[in-house]
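FAQ: What does the model actually see?

It sees only this:
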Amino acid sequence: MNMIITNDLVETFLKCPTKCFLRSCGEAGTGNAYAAWVRIKNDVFSIEGTKRLVAEVPPDKCAIGIQAMESPKLAQWNLGTDFVVQSQNLQCSSHAVEQIPSAGRGRTAQFVPIRFVFRNKLSRDDKLLLAFDARVLSEVLRREVGLGKIVHGENYSTLKVKTSALASDVRKLTDKIGTLLASPSPPDLVLNRHCAECEFQNRCRPKAIEKDDLSLLSGMTEKERTNFNSKGIFTVTQLSHTFRPRRRPHGLRDKRERYHHSLKALAIREKKIHVIGSPGMKIEGTPVYVDVEGLPDRDFYYLIGIRIKVGDSAVHHSLWADSPSDEGSIWREFLSKLIEVENPVLIHYGGFETVFLKRMCQRYGAPPSGSRAAKALESPINLVSVIFGQIYFPTYSNGLKDIAGWLGFKWSDQDVSGVQSIRWRDTWDQNKASLAKEKLITYNLEDGAALELVTRAVAEVGRQDIRPSSEAAGALEVVVADNLDSKMSLWPRFRSSIDGFETINKAARWDYQRDTIYIRSDAKLKRAKRKGTRRAKRTIRISKVVVCEPLRACPRCQRKATQTFRKITKCLHDLRFSRSGVTGWVVKYQFQVFWCPACRAFSPWPKEFSDRSIYGHNLAAFSIFEIIELCVSQRSVTQTLNRLFGFEMNENVVCRFKERGAEYYRETRKNILAEMVKGNLIHADETRIRLHAKTAYVWVFATFREVVYFYSETREGSLVQSALGEFKGVLVSDFYAAYDSLPCPQQKCLLHLVRDLNDAVLDNPYDEDVKRIVTGFAELLRGIVKTIDRWGLKSRFLHKHLVEVARFYKRIAKTELSSAAASKWKDRLEKDRAKLFTFLSHDDVPWNNNNAEHAIKAFARLRRAIEGLSTPNGIEEYLILLSVCQTCKYSGLDFLDFLRSGETDIVTFAARQWNRRVHTVERKSNLGGGELNS
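And it is asked to produce this:
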C-alpha cells in the first residue's frame, strides 16, 4: 500500500529524512518549545492572511473547505480556502487557491495556489512547498499550474513564484520521499542544523552518541562524510586514528592551517585540547566582551551585552531596545561605553556580531575617526577565527556553549539556545512580560561570562612558554599536534623524557660505532680509515698534443700581431666515442696569446675551449644525456665520470654543462613551438612540481612529432594564452577550464571522462540512473572506437556517428533522474557536448590525450630525480633540454648524437642523418655488387 505524501511530510523531508520517516510512522516526539511556537505562528498568520484575502472578494465568489473542490473545472468562485486536494498518492492542504478567469474564448481559467509564511525572509524550501501544491493541483485539474504566490512577513508581502521552473525538483523530491516511505527501516541517522528546532532531538542525539556517528561533528559536510564512509570510516573514533602530523612546505608555513576533522576526532577521543600551527591572540588593552541578541528575520538587534574587564572582576552592561526605533539609541549608548574604557579591545564570538558592527555603522554612523571607539571597531577579535583550524577542543562543535561547557561553565537554563531566545523575545513583544525580558538579559549576561572564560583558555593555550611541550598547562591539558609521532615513518625519531636515554640511543648508531668504537680495536678498519682520507696523486695521461700556429694578424682589426706573450699550455678533458664504446680523451694544446695595441683585444683561445672551460664538448653532451634522458642526478653523473675516466670534476661543472646547454638550445625550443602552432593539432596537459619552498607547475604541449615543456609559477591560463594564442587547429586537453579560453576547436580527452564515469559507477553501485547514463555512453563510444580501429581517424568514416551522438543526448534529456549523482553527470555531459566529439568532424584528431600524457611521463621520470632540489631557473633549464630530448625521440633521432653534432635545428639534423643513412646503404650495396662481379 502506497503511503500518502502530504505537505507536512514534504516539509519535514526538506529538513531531515529521519524526521519525515518518524512522522510517517506516527511516532510522537518529546516536544520542542521553539517548534511548537513556529507552528502556532504559522497557523495564526495563515488565519489572518486568509481573512485579508476573503475580505477582498465578494461573498458569492469565495468558497471555503470542501465546497471549493467539488468540481474545480466548473468552479464559479474566485478564491477557495482551506481545502484538501489529492491526486493518487499526493495530497496537499492548500491555504488558498485563486482562480483567474480566462482571458478569452478557447482559454481556460488559471488556478494560482497561495501559501502563507509568517517569516519576512523566505527560503528555497518555502518555494518548493508551493511548487508541491501546484503539482498536486495540476494533476487534479489536468492542466499546468505554472504560477503560485507566497504571502509572507509583517506587511503581508506577496511574492510570485514560477512553479513550473521547480516542477522537476518537486518530482525528484516526491520520488525520494516515496522511496523512503516504502522502506521498512528508517534512513541512516544524520544530525544537522535543524536538530535544535526538532521535537525528536532527545531521541536522535543519544543514538548518534551511542553509535559514535560522524554526523556528531557539526563542521563536517555531507560530501566529506560520504568520502570518509567510502574509505570505511563511520565513527568518530575510527576517524581519530587517521590523523598524521605533516611537515608543511616552507612557503605555506605563514598561512593558516586547514581544518582537520581527524584532529578534532582525536581531541574528542583523548579528551585533551590539541593545537596545530601557531594560534596567537594579542589583547593589548582592556578586553571588552560583546554579545548581541537579535531577530535575524527582521534584521533587528534588541540587546547588546557588554562585559568590561576591570582588574580581577568584570562589569556588565545590558543595553535593551523595546522596538526597532530604539536600536539607534542603544548603539550610541554602546559607543559611549567604549569611549569610557581605556584602550578597549572588542572580543566577540562568531560572525553575528561582525555583521552587527558593520550594519550599525552603516545605519547610524561610525564613531569619530581616531576616537577610542573607532579604534576598537577597526580591529575587533572574532574568537572563532582564532580557534578554527588551530585549536581543537574535545567538543563536537566549536559552539560557545559546547566549549564553555567543557571548560566548566554552567548556564542557569541548560536548554537555552539562540532559537529559544527568538521565542522569548516574541513573548515579550506580545505581552511585555518581565519574565521573558529577565530570561533574555540573564542568557546574554551568561554568554558574556562564557565568552570571557573561553578567551582566557585560548590565551593560555596560545602562550609561547607551553608551545614546545605537550604537557598540561595549568588546568588545561594541551597537546601540540606537531609533536605527535607520525606512524608513516619507518624510522621514527627516538625521544625520551628520561635523562641519558637519547645519548645512549645515539651511541648505538652504525657510523658512530664503526668510526669511534670498533676502530680502536680493529687494525684493518684503522688502515681503511687512514687510506680513505688520503688523496691519491693523479697522473694525467695525454692522448694527443696539438700545437697551434700563432696568429699573424688580429682577428678583429686585421692588424699584424706584434706583441706576443709566453706560450700557454692547457689540457682539454673530453670523451672520445667509438663504435664499441667511449674513453677518456685528454688533448694538450700549446698556443700563444698576443695583445693588439690598436683595438686593445687579446687573441682568443682555441675554439675547443668553450668559455675557457677545460672540459670538452663531448663530455658536456654526455653529461646532459645522462641527466635528461637517463634521469641520473648531477651528483651521480659527477661520480661516474670521475670514477671511470679519472676526471676531478665537482657537481658545479655538470651544473654549468646544463646551464650552457639550456641557453644554447633555448631558441631550438622556441622554433619547435612555432612549428607546432602552425600545425593542425596540439595536445596539452599540466602537472605539479615541488620546489624548495613552494609548488609550481609544468605545462606540456605535444604533437605526434614535437614536444615542448614550460615552467609556470601558477596554474593560471596566462601561459596557455601566450604560447598558443595564435593556434587555429584542434586542441586536445583534459577538462581543466584554463584551456577553454583559447578561441580554437577543442577536443576533451574522453579517456579522462571514461575513468570518471567508471568511478561514478563504483561510487554509486546501486544507482540505476547513473548506470543507465554510463552504459549508454559506453555503447556510443565503443561503436566509435570500432570504426577508428578499422578505418583510422578519418572524418569521412567517423562523421556518421554524429547521428548516434545526437540520439544519445536526446535520450538522456528525456530521462527523468532521481539521484543527485545522475543529475550531476547529465549536466556535465550536456555542458561539454560541443567539446566531446570534435574529432568526428576532423581528420587525424584523436579522442584521447595520450600524446601529452606520454610526454608528462617523461617529465615525471625526471621529476623523481630533481624534485625539491632545484630552483625555478634550474627547472626551466631542465625543461628546455627535455623539450629537445623528447622531440628527438618522437622524430626517431638519437638525443646524444644530436647533442654531439652541435646542431640547433632538429629538422636540419634529421635531414643530414637521413642522407647519411642513404649514402651508407648505397655504399654497402655497391660493395656487395662488386664482390659478386668478382
